Amino acid sequence: MSATSKSRAASAPIAQILAVYGILAAGAAGLVLLGFMPAAAIDPHALTRPMFAQFALTVLVWIALPIARNWAVFTGRASPRYFQDFRTNPPAEWIERPARAYNNLMQAPTLFYVIALLMMVTPWADSVQLTLAWVFVALRALHAAIYIGLNHLLARMASFGLSSFALWEIWLRYGAGLRVSEVVSLKISDIDSTRMMLRVEHGKGGKDRQAMLSPRLLELLRDWWRIARPQVWLFRGKGDRTSGLRAG
């Protein structure tokens, strides 16, 4: 192989990785912008639909798992001894893809079920949360299809990363009870660390309201104050050393 061919072969994976990071950045930006969209109140039980969709996806992969393994044994493509200790005579990689995809569906999606149930029990949910839930389920379905089908590593990485970002956004919005547009409009004076409350001016429906402030969120906000030293707007100003978020 010539030096030019080697250079091209080495640059191809780098270009693919950069493309995946570009997709992740664009997708993450789109999900953040989704938080700025007007949110309407919904019946929290509407979240049962994406929950059941995620469950249906898990069941489909669950069914594919024994089908792939039994078919491989019956056709001589896998040894029964492998499924005793999962070490002896390993079969072709594609035979165990459904098993790995199923195991993956037992991890992060569990947090999706938890947050969906919390939003129904509390109850606190809006149209943006519902949209994010469907985005998460769609990306998990795409991830499972890629894993079981082509098993393209970078495509898996992109779908997994974006689904994780959607799930993080659902949790963050629920944790503060705020839309992104409300978060960026917070003032230092809106934070009441004594009562552990956040004052939201002109929030949902154009009304002022109070949102709970968790100890962890207060700690993060204090860390941000130490770094940025904002003056009035929590995420805009700098230089004010007299805010109520000082450590101590």
Report on the structure:
Helices cover 60% and strands 4% of the residues. It is mainly alpha-helical. The chain folds into 2 domains: 40-176, Membrane associated eicosanoid/glutathione metabolism-like domain (Four Helix Bundle (Hemerythrin (Met), subunit A), Up-down Bundle), CATH 1.20.120.550; 183-248, no CATH class. The protein has a 3-stranded antiparallel beta sheet with strand order 1-2-3, with no helix packed on it. Helix 6 (127-148) packs antiparallel against helix 7 (153-176). Residues 237-248 have low confidence and may be disordered.
Number of strands: 3
Mean pLDDT metric? 83
Q: Sheet bearing the most strands, described? A: 3 strands, antiparallel
Helix and strand string, N-terminal first?
HHHHHHHHEEEH
- In CATH, the architecture of the largest domain is Up-down Bundle
CATH level 3 topology of the largest domain:
Four Helix Bundle (Hemerythrin (Met), subunit A)
- CATH homologous superfamily assignment of the largest domain: Membrane associated eicosanoid/glutathione metabolism-like domain
- How would you classify the helix and strand content by structural class? mainly alpha
